[in-house]
Structures are given as structure tokens and as C-alpha cells.
Specification:
This protein is mainly α. Helices cover 66% and strands 7% of the residues. The chain is built from 4 helices and 2 strands, in the order ααβαβα. It has a two-stranded antiparallel ribbon with strand order 1-2.
């Protein structure tokens, strides 16, 4: 029984370390992009979360994985800020998000 509690505690500690690592990487990632883009993506995420909007898939950069790290720089150079374009399921979702963002900026 003690072994199970110890194993559970160890797993909890490991999960906490991974969460902290993820948080640090996300912070570094946001710091690497232009401020206005980071603020825009955060605003969209907040709207999607607050209003429980379906059909939002996130920025392009979050929707693919490079199979080889050597292609990272060429992809970044070729795509540029398009990596931060938001993917949605249809035009209605896009229009709604754009409308909500424009209302918040007024």
C-alpha cells in the first residue's frame, strides 16, 4: 500500500515537472513572436474558451509537426507570420471570431 502511494506521489511530481516545462516553453514561444500577434492569438483563445466555440483548431503552427528538425528554419522563413494564422472549420466561425475581435477593440 505504501508503495502505491509512493508511486502515485512520484507520478504527481513528474506531471508537475512536465507542466512547468510546457509552461516555460509556451512562454518562450510567445516571447519569440511579435507582440501584436501574441496578443491577438490570446484574445481569440479567450473568446473561444469563454463562449465555448466549436470549430476552432488554433494557429497553423500548432497543427503540424516537423518530422525532421533540420526543416525548422526553412519552414519558418517560407511561412513567416502565416504560421500564426488561425484555422477554423468554416467561414461562419471565422466571421464570428473577426466580429468579436473587432467589437473588443472598440
Amino acid at each position: 500500500r505504501k508503495e502505491r502511494w509512493r508511486a502515485l506521489n512520484d507520478m504527481g511530481t513528474e506531471v508537475a515537472k512536465w507542466k512547468e516545462s510546457l509552461s516555460n516553453h509556451e512562454r518562450d514561444f510567445r516571447a519569440s513572436m511579435p507582440k501584436h500577434i501574441a496578443m491577438g492569438l490570446e484574445a481569440v483563445k479567450k473568446i473561444v474558451k469563454d463562449e465555448n466555440i466549436n470549430g476552432y483548431y488554433g494557429p497553423v503552427v500548432d497543427n503540424f509537426t516537423l518530422k525532421n528538425a533540420k526543416y525548422r528554419t526553412p519552414v519558418e522563413v517560407a511561412a513567416g507570420n502565416a504560421l500564426f494564422h488561425v484555422i477554423v472549420d468554416n467561414d461562419n466561425t471565422a466571421a464570428y471570431l473577426i466580429d468579436r475581435l473587432s467589437k473588443e477593440n472598440k
